[in-house]
Specification:
mainly alpha
């Protein structure tokens, strides 16, 4: 028995969802970077040179993804879904430490919202491009 292809949504339906998911993903992305930077600079008690190593290790994956996210590339959003899981794990682990609980919950929430928004942007973007190419 052949599988019947599900029709693609209309362009009018996809456009506002693309815009909203892109805005949420960018806000979550920059919020995540700001949280990591702010926590490490002001609240974490880390000695000088080690601070820059930690910041570099935490911000390097985000900096690699930033150009693609800012330009709205679907593949960059897809890769973000993989990378942001590291920050989610870090946030969950930090949430169990009473001295870092707020930081952990903020990190978990931002990474979760970034994951969901980037995932939906990727899906809707590919559907949008398929619809523009004439597929039904």
């Amino acid at each position: 028995m052949a599988k019947i292809a599900k029709p693609l949504p209309t362009l009018e339906w996809l456009q506002p969802r693309l815009k909203l998911s892109r805005i949420v993903s960018l806000l979550s992305f920059f919020g995540l970077g700001t949280l990591l930077l702010g926590w490490n600079l002001w609240f974490a008690n880390v000695p000088g040179k080690l601070l820059w190593v930690i910041l570099g290790a935490q911000l390097a994956p985000l900096l690699l993804l930033a150009p693609g996210l800012v330009l709205g590339h679907a593949r960059a959003h897809a890769w973000t879904c993989f990378v942001v899981n590291l920050y989610f794990i870090q946030g969950v682990l930090a949430a169990f430490d009473p001295s870092k609980a707020l930081y952990g919950w903020l990190l978990t929430g931002l990474s979760f919202s970034l994951f969901c928004a980037a995932l939906m942007y990727t899906r809707w973007r590919f559907q949008y491009e398929r619809k523009l190419a004439g597929e039904n």
